[in-house]
Design goal:
Organism: Brevundimonas faecalis
Pfam families: SCP2 (PF02036)
Number of helices: 4
Radius of gyration: 12 Å
InterPro entries: SCP2_sterol-bd_dom, SCP2_sterol-bd_dom_sf
Protein name: Sterol carrier protein
Strand content: 15-25%
Strand order of the largest sheet: 3-2-1-4-5
Structural class: alpha+beta
Length: about 100
């Protein structure tokens, strides 16, 4: 799994209308970024580094573990492996879109 594969997976999960209504950026460190524009119609998913309503930051390995169900999102947050800046409620709506 690489950034392009994950971006495509999220793009298909988001579809034309994710119901997010806001923008979210996944900051995966050196690996790259995934920008989900849930405010546009249709929604879009790119690897652009744009300002977002919520930014979720985590290491790539932790992201992979989270997407595979091996890492609980709440535990990752409590352990500092997952950081959220901005609108935390939007970040919570994101969880179902990240599952593989």
């Amino acid at each position: 799994m690489d950034l392009n594969a994950v971006t495509e997976h999220i793009r298909s999960a988001v579809g034309d209308n994710s119901g997010l209504g806001k923008t979210v950026k996944l900051d995966l460190g050196d690996v790259g970024k995934i920008f989900i524009d849930g405010a546009s119609s249709p929604n879009s998913v790119t690897n652009d580094d744009k300002p977002a309503d919520a930014t979720v930051s985590m290491k790539w390995d932790d992201f992979v573990a989270l997407s595979e169900g091996k890492l609980d999102p709440m535990m990752a947050f409590m352990q500092g492996k997952l950081k959220i800046a901005g609108d935390m409620m939007i970040a919570q709506k994101l969880a179902p879109l990240l599952k593989r």
